[in-house]
Structure prediction request, 218 residues.
Amino acid sequence: AVVIGLLSQHELQLTIGDRLGDLSFQMADKLDRGMFERLREIQLMSHSKLMRDANSPLSDKREALEDAKRNMPAHAWIAITDAKGVVLAATGGLLEGMNVSARPWFAPAMQGPYIGDVHGALLLAKHLPAQPDGNLRFVDVAAPIVASSGELLGVLCSHLTWAWAREVEASLFQNIKDTRNVDVFVFSDNVEPLLVPSGTTAESWPKLPQLLSTMPSG
Prediction:
């Protein structure tokens, strides 16, 4: 009976491990697909006749950005810049007139479509509502705006709210979290926590190597 019990426990551990591995793969795939879809939205907008017309009124472009934000709430901030990096129009009027050429998304987006890493709010932190868990993070997606003449007019950029990652997590892990003591983490390439258990902040958790060292083996 003891041997059977140990074997059953081992099989259960393997089954749960396989399921978590499968869910982790699905979450990575959903996050990847989600960011690609958001980038496509920005690309399509940058190719619109309104954006490619240098003579179109900025008020019309700003209204188009506001409409896009209302219809696609994952985009927390959408803006267009000129070729020097000055924000010409933006949702909520945020950062208009500011030169953002030093931001990491601007130079790559002048060359082609761009997706950045998850990061803090930086310039927009004081202008956007805080998240319930305190983790105000964004992903930059951007694309060049090219006139029909071939002239490079500037960049169309969006800050995607990282909150949608929490929605992906809930859709995949909620059932197993309700029945098992499971916490979900997403780490960056430099092993810093990007998504942490609800009710906590990223700053309250160690980097991945330190976290793994605290977990039981086996």
